Amino acid sequence: MGDLATSELLVVGKITGCYGIKGWVKIHSFTDPQENFLNYGGWVLRRRGGTEPIEFDAGKRQGKGLVAHIRGVDDRTAAESFRGLEVAVAADSLPALEEGDFYWHQLEGLEVWCTAKEGTNKGAEEGTDGGEVLLGRVDYLIETGANDVLVVKASDGSIDDRERLIPYLPGDVVTRVDLEAGRLEVDWFLEE
After folding, report:
1. Total structural domains in the chain?
2. How far apart are CA 103 and CA 6, in angstroms?
3. Is 81 helix (H, G, I), strand (E, B) or coil?
4. Given Cys at both, which of 14, 43, 146, 149 links 142, Cβ 3.0 to 4.6 Å?
5. Cis (ω within 30 of 0) for the bond into 33?
6. Do 80 and 24 fall into the same domain?
7. What is the pLDDT of residues 140-164, one digit of tens each?
C-alpha cells in the first residue's frame, strides 16, 4: 500500500449510523461488490480538519448493506461520533484492473470527444465538417442496473452548454479511453 502522505485518497464508503450497542456501525459501501470495502485495510476517516486512521476489526453483510466494528470502540455512544464520516483508502492500494477496465474515479474529469455523425448538421454548423467535437467533461457516473452512465457536463470549448447522459458501453458507445491524454471518445449522436 502507498504512503498516505503522498497517495491520492479515494472514498470507498460512508458510516451511516450505529448497529447494536457494542461499537458496530452501518456502512454504505461505494465498492462493487459491497463486500470489497472490508478487504482493503489502511482505512482513513475524512473529517473537516483532515484525515485520521481507522481500523475495522470485524465486518459482515447485514441486510442490504454492511456493518463493521471499529477497533477500540465498544459502546454505541462512542460509535455515534463516527456517523456521517467518509472512509477512504489510498488509491494506489486498489487492485490492478485488467487491460481496458477502469475505476470510476479514473474516468471522472476526462474530456469527452465525439465524432459528428451523418444525419446531424450540428458539426457543420460549428465548422467541424463532421469531425470531432468536445461534448464536455465526465462529472460523475450513475449505476443504473443495466449499465453505468456517464454524466457529461459542458466545459471550456465544448460544443454547447448541455448536460448529457451517455451509456458507458466500452467498444460500442465508448470507443477509446486515454487516461494519459485525459480523453474519452464516444460514438454518439449530437442532438439537434
Report:
1. 2
2. 20
3. coil
4. 149
5. yes
6. yes
7. 888 877 788 999 999 999 999 999 9
